[in-house]
Design brief:
mainly alpha; disordered C terminus; Rhomboid-like fold
Length: 219
């Protein structure tokens, strides 16, 4: 099946790099995981939760300058209600594959762009109201807009596009559409916003072929 063949190509490149370099191949991924764990502990700690909220908590109602300042940390600030093991597993797998196949700088760039796309959507929805296309009720926009999930989805699409893995790309996009249709909430729409941005940017850039050195071509 084409889908499994595409996944095998990506995982094959990833596995070879890991065998050759070990943990040195994924410093950004390991740092991100450590950061997530530390932030999770701090946001549940007495006397530190407020600082974590002020440094990384992004809300649609925040002034833009505050949201932008908090965005880099917000990418790695987990939702306190979600299971930590699942979040770390997502980051290890997807960030690790992206860091090896497209390079650490591009991995961070895509993660930040996808997070900003989600933040922009939340602000649009707050401005437009629930009766406009893609608008959400105000109470759905009061939640903290943080976490690496939008970045994880966008990185998956970016890597798939760079490998010309069209079936994998289609599967991820379809999964995000199904998520939004079945459970229309801020998280689902933010995932879709991140995917839409990466698709738009990738349409204007060269596509990576397997075997090309990571970081050798543009976004």
């Amino acid at each position: 099946m084409r889908l499994f063949g595409e996944l095998a190509a990506v995982l094959g490149d990833t596995g070879r790099e890991l065998r050759a370099r070990g943990a040195r191949a994924v410093p950004v991924t390991l740092t991100a995981c450590a950061g997530i764990l530390v932030l999770q502990l701090l946001q549940h700690g007495r006397g530190t939760s407020g600082w974590v909220e002020r440094l990384g908590g992004v809300y649609a109602s925040l002034p833009w300058w505050q949201a932008l300042l908090r965005t880099p940390l917000s990418v790695f600030l987990p939702d306190p209600s979600l299971p930590m093991w699942g979040l770390v597993l997502q980051v290890v797998v997807v960030f690790g594959i992206a860091e090896i196949t497209v390079g650490p700088r591009r991995t961070l760039a895509v993660a930040l762009l996808a997070t900003l796309a989600g933040t922009c959507f939340a602000r649009y929805s707050l401005w437009a109201g629930p009766h406009w296309p893609f608008g959400l009720p105000a109470h759905d926009l009061l939640v903290r807009d943080t976490g690496p999930s939008a970045a994880v989805v966008a990185l998956g699409v970016h890597v798939a596009l760079r490998y010309r893995a069209w079936w994998t790309t289609s599967a991820i996009v379809l999964a995000m559409v199904v998520e939004v249709v079945s459970l229309p909430n801020l998280a689902g729409y933010e995932h879709l916003a991140g995917v839409a941005l990466i698709l738009s940017l990738s349409a204007c850039a060269p596509v990576r072929s397997p075997g090309t050195r990571p970081g050798a071509v543009g976004l």
